[in-house]
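Friendly challenge for the regulars: who can give me the structure tokens for this chain first? No prize, just bragging rights.
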Amino acid sequence: MACPMCGGTRRITIRLPDGRELETACLECLDREAEEAWEDEDEVERLLESGELF
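First reply, four minutes later:
Bragging rights claimed.
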């Protein structure tokens, strides 16, 4: 199956202990998403500290 984020073919399937399978995006997309989340968190923190976001 294709990655839902980039359309690539490196989609990941995780087998859960109860036998079910969970499909998720490829590692590159998950890594990019995590990096963007950290950048957003840093921006929110900066806005809170400067008083621009309240």
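Residues 19 and 28 are 26 Å apart (CA to CA). Strands lie at 12-15, 21-24. Your move, everyone else.
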